[in-house]
Design a protein that fits this description.
It is built from 24 helices and 19 strands. It is of the alpha+beta class. The chain folds into five domains: 95 residues, no CATH class; 105 residues, OB fold (Dihydrolipoamide Acetyltransferase, E2P) (Beta Barrel), CATH 2.40.50; 279 residues, no CATH class; 37 residues, no CATH class; 188 residues, no CATH class. This is Competence protein ComEC.
């Protein structure tokens, strides 16, 4: 048969004949067809995947809500937040327009739901910040405060009390909250909640991170309504006594005092913390031991304590009502037990101060009781998701805090581990005899502890830069001891105290807490009990959380893909480099790593706060050692010089010790020989180091900085802060006078001006390094 192209108009156009196409060359519409087919197949697979996991889809909506909150905190400016909202809105519209609602209905709904929840999370935290955010005072000041005591918290271990006052402060139209430390020698009778007092205090703005990766108290104070913190300088004068009756805070304080009167020493202090949430009397050595042993969570009223109380009340009321036939036949016993447990949980939460972690735990316990009353599974991911969503709606700022992350990570890890197919098979397998069942339960308990430790350790290292290695082993004994022995004994002792016969019960409480403290000190003293790491990057922590959520929230083999990003992130966190030089925002404190087990510092400081911050950011367990005592440093009355060697290169560091006048010629000569110059004052234009001049002018805009000499990287506090409101960005420094025709010092030395991030350092060549001591 002849080709149709042989006749008619098409015969004059060879391109119309398919046989005229060169071999190996395809039409462009064929390529588009293949790409469209590949994309369609991919979307079909996603649709089939979503259809195969109907119970896990809703969990990711809560994750998206939390991601929107985290995005608001991480992104620096309002333009970025608006861009994220527009991007999510555009993605949702694109899904509606391009995805066939019949072929890809689940995928279409998933994209729309995730984008809407992300926007909802961002708007929620943005709205709360605008409504309740409290700016801090402009700078340090010493003023008289005349206001009402809102809260008083005792801290006997530090010989002080902590007051929160609502008082007028210059610069604010309305009275604001101020938190001050009240030493015992300046205290007075009647300084309680509701009293009007007058005192003189030295106030500071809420502190931003001292160094990159440090704790951001300014953000906590912004959402907590605190405008300043400080210390009392004079004896407090009570202007008017409190007219309030017995308050919840007063009941908490009275309960703590009663417990400590019945049980002395460290066991009494810990018993008071478990009963009332008052941790102020716990000795620093005991608290450090509990932290290094991974048992700190036992000291804070959280999920363990609330769950133990609610469960005990639920079990006791249900068993008691079941023994009375007339009630058991007319009342739903599980519902009555759930109501009693709920009331006990709410009362315990209020009595212990209604802290956010306690309220969060109470909400979770109430959800579990509701599930039990309805006959539903009380431990499910959907229940955890509902609890997390409720917490984020009221306290969205908690998402980026360690308490929220660690508490929910522990619960999610437990549920995910016990819902895994191998664990279910192990639990359902036949084990003959009671010893074998006990062995199985012990193996599961130990395995659960290890899983929780693996999930929580990266979170603890990211926020606190230290974590206990043997926490899973210690918790195997400590958690049952606290939940099944200590807390029931405390409750029994308090009940017996109503009749004045609680002495024996308190003796048993003391012995159980002595055992708990022995476990903590024994585990903390083991070699390698504590691991410390320097701060890692945000991307690695975010990648770890994403991988762990993928591993926990999906079911089946697809969940194993989460191990890859989690493993990469964990490796990046472990391999995070240690900073070589640490400089606080005021330039007054400097730390240099590489001096063996000790951190070399310019000056030690007067308290443990500075010491702990420097060691944590350096990722070190040792102690501080001043440069005056270091043989490799050369110190005079005004400066210390030190030569350090990194990757075969020698770097000369010059650090100012005083603010005394230095001749410009001498200063210029010293700076020319140095690679890094550090000072807590503004240095003149004559100082031009080869790499960086970190004086007051620079540090005023960058905050604390950490320097990595090996790579030339500089991290600053300013680069981790946005424009949400709690970080005060300073104005660029302007010198009072400048010689005619002179170039500003920031430009001449290659440094940024105040408010800018310094550039990457350029390590000098070995030939240009002057001689000096090595480290």
């Amino acid at each position: 048969m002849a080709s149709p192209a042989a006749d008619g108009p098409a015969a004059d156009f060879p391109a119309a004949d398919p046989t005229g196409i060169p071999v190996g060359r395809g039409r462009h519409w064929d390529i588009r067809t293949r790409l469209s087919s590949m994309l369609g197949n991919l979307l079909d697979r996603c649709e089939a995947f979503l259809h195969a996991h109907p119970f896990e889809r809703g969990l990711w909506l809560v994750v998206a809500f939390g991601s929107g909150i985290a995005g608001w905190v991480v992104l620096p400016r309002a333009n970025d937040w608006i861009a994220l909202l527009l991007a999510c809105g555009g993605l949702a519209i694109a899904a509606v327009v391009t995805l066939d609602q019949f072929r890809w209905s689940m995928l279409r709904l998933a994209v729309m739901g995730l984008t809407v929840m992300t926007c909802a999370g961002l708007v929620t935290v943005w709205s709360k910040s605008a409504l309740v955010g409290q700016p801090g005072i402009s700078g340090p000041r010493v003023i008289w405060l005349h206001g009402e005591v809102i809260e008083r918290r005792e801290e006997p271990a530090k010989a002080r009390a902590r007051l929160v006052l609502r008082a007028p402060v210059e610069g604010f139209d309305d009275p604001v909250l101020v938190r001050v430390n009240l030493p015992q020698d300046k205290d007075a009778a009647g300084v309680v909640q509701g009293a009007q007092v007058r005192l003189r205090a030295r106030l500071m703005p809420p502190a931003s991170p001292m160094l990159p990766g440090g704790y951001d108290f300014a953000r906590t104070a912004w959402f907590g309504g605190l405008a300043a913190t400080g210390s009392v300088l004079t004896r407090v004068e009570v202007v008017r006594l409190s007219k309030r009756g017995t308050t919840l805070r007063g009941m908490q304080s009275d309960l703590a005092l009663h417990v400590r009167s019945m049980l002395e020493g460290s066991p009494g202090n810990i018993a008071a913390a478990l009963a009332s949430g008052d941790r102020g009397a716990i000795a620093v050595s005991d608290e450090d031991a509990m932290r290094d042993a991974g048992l700190t969570h036992l000291l804070s009223i959280s999920g363990l304590h609330v769950s133990a109380l609610v469960g005990a009340v639920y079990w006791a009321i249900a068993r008691l009502l079941a023994l009375i036939p007339w009630i058991a036949l007319r009342v739903r016993v599980p519902l009555a037990g759930a109501m009693a447990g709920a009331l006990a949980g709410v009362a315990y939460t209020l009595l212990t101060g209604s802290e956010v972690p306690t309220v969060r735990s109470c909400i979770g316990a109430l959800l579990v009781l509701g599930a039990l009353a309805l006959g539903r599974d009380p431990l499910s991911m959907r229940l955890v998701a509902v609890g997390g969503l409720l917490v984020m709606l009221f306290w969205p700022e908690a998402v980026v805090g360690p308490s929220f992350q660690m508490s929910f990570a522990a619960v999610i890890a437990i549920i995910a581990f016990h819902s895994a197919a191998p664990v279910k098979a192990f639990m359902s397998s036949e084990h003959y005899g009671r010893p074998m069942r006990w062995l199985r339960d012990l193996i599961l308990l130990l395995a659960t502890g290890i899983v929780i430790e693996l999930a929580l350790m990266p979170i603890a290292l990211f926020h606190f830069h230290r974590a206990g290695v043997y926490g899973s082993l210690a918790n195997v004994i400590a958690i049952p001891l606290t939940t099944l022995v200590t807390m029931p004994l405390i409750g029994l002792a308090l009940l017996l105290d109503l009749a004045g016969i609680g002495g024996a019960a308190w003796w048993l409480v003391g012995k159980s807490l002595e055992l708990l403290l022995w476990i903590a000190h024994f585990v903390a003293a083991r070699p390698g009990a504590v691991t410390m790491l320097p701060p890692g990057d945000r991307w690695s922590f975010g990648l770890f959380l994403a991988g762990m959520l993928w591993l926990a929230l999906w079911t089946g083999r697809v969940r194993l893909w989460g191990i890859i990003p989690a493993g990469i992130a964990a490796g990046a966190m472990v391999l995070a480099p240690t900073p070589d030089v640490l400089i606080t925002g005021d330039g007054h404190h400097v730390g240099i790593t590489g001096g063996g087990a000790d951190l070399l510092v310019l000056r030690e400081g007067r308290g443990d706060y500075m010491r702990d911050n420097l060691l944590e950011i350096a990722g070190m367990e040792g102690d501080l050692r001043t440069l005056d005592d270091w043989p490799g440093a050369h110190c005079s009355e005004d400066f210390c010089s030190l030569a350090v060697t990194r990757s075969g290169r020698r770097f000369i560091i010059l650090i100012a010790k005083t603010r005394a006048y230095i001749d410009d010629m001498d200063l210029a000569a010293a700076c020319e020989r140095a690679d890094l110059v550090i000072a807590d004052r503004r240095l003149t234009y004559a100082c031009h180091p080869r790499m960086l001049k970190a004086d007051r002018t620079l540090l005023a805009g960058t905050g604390g900085i950490t320097v990595y000499l090996k790579t030339g990287r500089v991290r600053t506090v300013a680069e981790t802060q946005g424009h949400q409101g709690w970080y005060r960005w300073p104005e660029p420094y302007k010198p009072r006078s400048q010689p005619s025709g002179a170039m500003p010092d920031a430009k001449r030395s290659g440094e940024p001006r105040a408010g800018q991030v310094p550039p990457t350092l350029r390590p000098p060549s070995l030939a240009g390094s002057p001689p000096g001591g090595t480290q």
